[in-house]
Amino acid sequence: MNKIFLGICIFLSLFGCAEKKKPLGEYAVIDIANGIGEYQKAYCSDFFSSMEIIPLETNKNSLIGEEPVILHYGDLIFVCSITSRYYIPLIRELHVFDRSGKFLYQIGKAGGGPGEYFSIFNVFLNPDKPAVYIEDSKDILEYGLDGRFIRSIRKPDDENLHNCTYAGNDLFVGQLFYNGKNKYKYCLFDQNGDIVKGFPSHFFYDKVGRGSYELGLYPIRMDHDLYLKDYVNDTLYILADSELHPAYIFDPGKYSIPIERLSHNAPSGPSTHIAVTGIAGTPDYIFYRLTVPEMLPRPKSRPVFMAGKDRSTDAIVYGIYHIKGNTNIFLDTDPSRQKGLINDMNGGLSFIPQSYVGNGVMADFWKAEDMKEILTEEYFAARNIKDRQAHQKLRELLKKLKEDDNPVVVIAKLK
User: Fold this and answer.
1) What is the per-residue pLDDT across 55-83, written as a single tens digit (0 to 9) for each?
2) Residues 372, 340: Cα–Cα separation, whole Å
3) CA geometry: angle at 237 spanning 236 and 238, to 5°?
């Protein structure tokens, strides 16, 4: 217990210190295996100096579906999500809102004409100029921030690339599905769809068909640095000077993915491995998400009824790695069994950083139905709320909010 307390003190005392960048090729090891089960409660005020809520306008042209991806550029908020009807997924759409949450316009539309797409695999921004991109199955479509279509960039033919993003110097980087014969896992390509450079795979195993293990995480941008990670490799790489350099190792120890489970003759049975399934990084912190097998202890979560049974735990665990201090914690649930950082700032739902906006700002979203259900007088009474003005704004929003409204974007400024 004393060691845990000391670790927390060191973690918090080093908060806000600027990181001295490691030389390219050097990496830090993030100890995963030895921390699982040691779940700790952490608070928004430990990390953030302010928190802002932005309700997104809800009308027939701006409906946001499940699990939106949120991007920011200046005073614009880009939201991409799967729209659905009667719980049947249809197609992703990209909507633009201003900083007050007012809906402005939709970028592109479904179709086969110029500036149109069949589906959205990924959306990303260009840090070098005001442009937003939609990745379709075969092309990358570039638009101005006003929604004007600029050009179509062909992805390399027959390479089956996904999770593409802008890499600088008018180059793009994409990831290949692993088919057992890949010469490389990532590649750089230009606006003509020509591969400029390929980066080799580091995992080889017998493979038949396609599965989730061949997927990669969405590229992670930390200000001007771009990081890449695939599912089966525990290494987080930085892309610099057209080279991939190891930057961080997520070490699951004996809970790494067995090669046998990756192959076509994988044994049946429950999973026994830990995997990193999402990252939102800043120059000071790496916020990440893990899937933890049932055999290991998990934090309790809000009851979810499935097949008539009350499931009070799930596989998702959130971690925070402090880069400068080389310290790592795993988050416990709050008293209402929400996951993430306990919100002691405006008293709202827990905060889980979904994306890094830049300049020390992180974003999350809250579902309107969750806010209406959870944020009761009893809930507020049990909170130590530090920003009363922000709390009052939250209360005013709750009076107007409807359960089927668009999600509320939450912006938090790091200390």
Assistant:
1) 999 999 998 887 788 999 989 999 988 65
2) 19
3) 130
